Amino acid sequence: MYLALGIIFLIVSLLMSAIIVYTAVHSVKSGGGLITKKNMFYLAPAFLIIYLMYITAGAYNGERFDFFYCFSLIGTVLDAFKFDVNTDLLSPLCQAYPIFYADFVLAFLIAVVTAILSVASFFSRRISNYFTVRIRLRKNCDIVVGDSECAVNYAAHTQNCVLLGADVSNLRYSDLIRRGVPVLKVPFKTKPLSRKLKNGGYNVIVFRDGKIAYTKVIEIFSALDNGNRIYLEANQPEMKILREKFLTKADKISNIWLTGFSKYELMARRFVVDYPVTKYIPRSFFNDNFTLKNGKRINIVFIGFGKVNYQLFRLCAMQFQFAQQIDGKLASKPVNYHIYDNRDTSLHNEFFSRILYEFDEEFKDCDFPKPEKICELKIHPLDINSVDAKKDFKSLVTQDSFTYFIVSLDSDLEDASYAQTVRRLFDGNDNYRIFVRAKNENGEKLNEINDCITYFGEEKNLYSHENIVNDDLTELAQRINLLYNNISNPPEWLRELKSNKDLTAEEQEKILNEKLADPRNREFMLESWTALPYIEQASNLYHALNLPYKLNLMGFDMVKKSGENDNGISEAEFNERYINSGRETGYGDYSFFFKNESGNVLAYIEHLRWNALYILYDYKQMKKNCITVVEKQDDNGNVSRMMPHKNIRQKQHACLTTYYGLSELIAYKYEKLYRGEILNEADYKDNARLQELSKIYAYDYMDLDRLYSEITAMRYKLVDNNLR
C-alpha cells in the first residue's frame, strides 16, 4: 500500500511541477512576468501534498491519530515552507520505501519555490522595475522627464524608455509601475543623476504639461557632460530664446544638443509626408514633364482654423508648389487656399498678414525679379453650416479642379459628422479628398480602403520615438547637411569622403552608413546639425519632408522595406520619369537650366518651395548694394574673392527671386567679381568662374540626382502608386 501511495504522490508532485512551470512560462510569454500574485494559488496544493505525506509517514510509524496530533502536523508542514524538515518523522518511511525520498524532495522544492514566488509577488513590480530601469539605462534609452499625462503615455508606449519621476509619492510610484511604466525615482539634481546616468547618450524628452522649468532641465543635463540630447516641447520663438540663452555660453555649457518639437508641428509634418496632395491628384491633370495642364486648379479648403489647421496651412503652403507652362516657359501655378471659420480671432495671424500684405510691401521694390506668390489665399468668415459655405464647397469640386478638404472642429464626432455632410455634396465627382482630424483616444480603426475620407492626427501616434527622436526624413536632412554643407574642422573620414569625386552616390551612401554605425561619428553628425542656423535647419528639414511630395508627383510612393531583398523599382525605371539631360555633361551647358524636362520642373518646384519657406520665415530679398566683394585669405596665404548673397542676422537673401531671376543674380556677381570680362553663356563649359557662380542652379539638380540612392540608403523602396 505504501509503495502505491509513494507512486501516487510522485505523479501528483510531478503533475503540479509541470503545471507551475507551464503557467510561469505562459505568463512570461504573454508579458505577465514570472513573479505574480497568481503564484499564491499554488501554496494550498503544496501544503496539502506535504500534509498528506506527513500523515502517511505518521501512519507508517504507528502514531496515534487524534485531533491534537493532526493539528500539530499543520505547524510541522508550515516549517517546511521555512526550510525546516522533520527528519525523525520521515526517515523510517523513506528508508523502507526509497520512492518517498523523491516524493518528499520534490514536494519540499514545490513548497520552497511557491513560498519564494508568493513572497516576491508582493514586491515583484518594484523588483522588475529596478532591473528594467538599469537594463534600459545601459542601452542609451529615452528619458522622459516629469510625471505628466504626455510623459506617462510616451513612456508606456515606448519600448526603450524610462520615466524620470523625481518627486513622485510612493503611492504614485506603485501606480506607475503597475501600469508598466519604468520609473527612475531620483532627486532632480546633478550629483544624484550623475551616479545613475553614467553611460550618457540619452534622449532627454520634456513635455510641456510636465510644468518643469526648461532652463533647469538644460542646466542639469548639460552639466552631466556625457552626450545627452535634449528634446523640449516648445514652439519656434521659445526655442530661439533658449538657444540664445544657452548655446552662447560656450565657456559655461559644452556638449549640449538642444532641439524642440510641437504637437501640432509634428502632426503637420506627418500629414505632408503621409498625404501629399500629389498622391491623389489624377495623372490626367499633368503633362508628361509633371507640369499642371493649363486650366487645371488645385484647392485646399480648411474647415475650422484652430491650432491644428493653422500648422497644417503653414506646412502645406510651404510644401505644396506646382509649375505650369506658359509660352514655352515654366511658371508658378499657386494652390488656392480657402479658410472657413466664423471666429474672428482665428482669421487673424502672422501668416495671413505675411501673404496678403507684407509680401507685397516688402517685395515691391526689388533689384531682382520679385518672387512668385506663395499661394492664392481667400478667407471666408462664414458659418460652415450656412448655405453659402455649402455652395462654395460644391463649386470647388469640378472636372478641372482637385480639392482637399481638411476638417478640424471641436471634437472627433463633430469632425466625422461634418465630413459626411461634405461628402454628400459630391455624388458623381471624385476629384476631392476629405481629411478629418481625429484624436481617436479609444483606438478605433477609422480609415477604410478606397474611402474618400481619411482620419489623421491620432495623438497616441504623435508623441512617439519615431516622430520626436528618430524620424527617418529628419535623419536624411542631417545626412545631407553632413555631406553637402561646409562644416568647419570635419573629421578625417568625412574630409576623405567628401573629397573623393570618383564615388557614385550609392558608394558614398554605403560608406556613410558604415561610418555612422560608430556612435562617435553619429554624435558628430548631430552636433553639426545643431550648429546650423535655425533657418538652415528648417530648410534642410523641409527639403527632406518634401521628398514624398516630389515622388508622388512623379507617380511613385516611398515604402519602408521589410527586408534586404524587398526591392522596389530600379534606378533605370526611376530615370525613365526623371529626365535630366544636364547631368550627362556634368551640367556643362548653361542653357540646360532653362529647359522644360521633368528634371527642370522638379528643380523649378524646389525653388518655389525654398522661396515659400524663407518668405514665411520673414526673409526679404537682399539689395544689390548689400552684395559686396569680400576677400578671404586661407591658411596658405591664398586670397579668394567672393560675394556673399545672404545675411542671416538681417534675414536677407538674394536668391529670393524667381527661378529665372537667379540668372540675373549670377550675371550681377560675375560683373562685380570679374570686371572687364564679358559674360558669354555659350562658353559656360570652359568657364570655371561662371560654373562656380552657377551652382545656385546646379545644386538643386545635383540634389535631385541623388534622390534615388538617398531614399534606398534610408531603407525605403520606390513603388508605382498606380494613380488613375
Give the amount of beta strand, in percent.
5-15%
How would a textbook summarize the main sheet? 6 strands, parallel
What gap, in angstroms, lies between the N and C termini? Answer: 85 Å
Radius of gyration of CA atoms, rounded to a whole number: 35 Å
Number of E-state strands: 20
Helix content: 40-55%
Instruction: Tell me the structural class.
Output: alpha/beta
Low-confidence stretches: 31-37, 249-254
Continuous helix count: 30
Average pLDDT taken over every residue = 84
Shape verdict: elongated
Side-by-side strand order of the widest sheet: 3-2-1-4-5-6
Description:
With about 725 residues, the chain is of the alpha/beta class. The protein is built from 30 helices and 20 strands. A six-stranded parallel β-sheet has the order 3-2-1-4-5-6, with helices on both faces. Strands 11-10-7-12-13-14 form a six-stranded parallel β-sheet, with helices on both faces. Helix 16 links the parallel strand 12 (about 400-405) and strand 13. The longest helix has 28 residues, at about 1-30. It starts with a helix and ends with a strand. Residues about 30-35 and about 250-255 have low confidence and may be disordered.
